[in-house]
Amino acid sequence: MSRIAYVNGAYVPHAVAGVHVEDRGYQFGDGVYEVCEVRGGHMVDERRHMERLLRSLGELRIRLPMSLAALGVVLRQTIARNRVRDGLVYLQVTRGVARRDHYFPDPATPPSLVVTARAIDPAKGEAAAEQGIGVITVPDNRWERVDIKTVGLLPNVLAKEAAKQAGAREAWFVDAGGHVTEGGSTNAWIVTPEGRLVTRPAESGILRGITRTVMFEVAAELQLRIEERPFTVAEALGAREAFVTSATNFATPVVRIDGQAIGDGRPGPVARALRANYHRLAEIAR
Ligand code: PLP
User: Fold this and answer.
1) Would the CB of 116 count as within 6 Å of ligand 1?
2) 181 in helix, strand or coil?
3) Which of 145, 181, 184 is nearest to 55 (CA)?
4) Whole-number pLDDT of residue 200
């Protein structure tokens, strides 16, 4: 079956889907995106992802090119047309197409909207979670507005590629004070020797992950205590467990940081329990 993409009002074959060369997303990274998990053909946590999309757009003063209701239809259509049961749906909104000039274009310029969807074999994520993943640490060289989910991801791309070259799956950014901020495409967590969950406050240096937010509810249900505070690489190396969260990783155990084993070097019970209970508490609109 051939894939279909939604591009500015039309559903087109994915192989030939494209935007104009002067799209500001292409020229300047002047746009935002969201990734929602698709499970059993339905979007997971659509409401929260749409709320964050509106926030990102607002911070950059980009308009949503259609109503949220219409966008919901496009997302569902794209999922259905690609027959995705388990996978993800990706959406990107940019400031639109205009002659290349750093200043914002005429306010009447329509923003661009692209939506794609693809299947992911759930067995692959499960296998990664069973084994646990390795992360490397890298200096956080990103701009301060990482709370906005922009398509400008070059530092994340370079960090994740460096992780891959080192035989790891994810890179954890570390701020000037030696504290972990977050992963290249995930939020970072540890479990202290006393069994407390620690993750950085969302107010500075990280994207407020939707999965992170839901995990607060999962942790409360499991009667696990969360300390929202920065943690250092040294504290992570001495942690009982570490893990990452994101829409496509749920909670995935981290078993090595910079080549050093965390805990006994195997996925721990806390990360496993959070992963096992996540979809019960996530919102899945059927
Ligand atoms: N942090 C960064 C930098 C990300 O790119 C992502 C997801 O793409 C996350 C955190 C996790 O966010 P979410 O749980 O909403 O997928």
Assistant:
1) no
2) strand
3) 145
4) 98
Task: Tell me the average pLDDT of the chain.
Answer: 97
Q: List the structure tokens of 18.
A: 């494209």
DSSP 170: E
Per-residue b or e along 234-260, where b marks 16 or more CB atoms closer than 10 Å to that residue's CB: ebbeebbbbbbbbbbbbbbbbbbbeee
Cβ of residue 181 lying under 6 Å from some atom of ligand 1: no
What is the rounded CA–CA span in Å between residue 248 and residue 38?
9
What are 65-108's pLDDT values in tens digits?
999 999 999 999 999 999 999 999 999 999 999 999 999 999 99
Paired sense of beta strands 31-39 and 42-43, if any = antiparallel
How many whole angstroms separate alpha carbon 231 and alpha carbon 94?
34
Q: What's the rounded Cα separation, in Å, for the pair 257 and 217?
A: 27
Atom 10 of ligand 1: nearest residue by CA position: 186
**pTM value > 0.90:** yes
Catalytic residue, chosen from 124, 149, 160, 164, is: 149
Residue 74: CB partners within 8 Å, gap ≥ 6?
6, 66, 113, 115
| Average pLDDT over every residue of 168-192 | 98
- pLDDT confidence of residue 84: 98
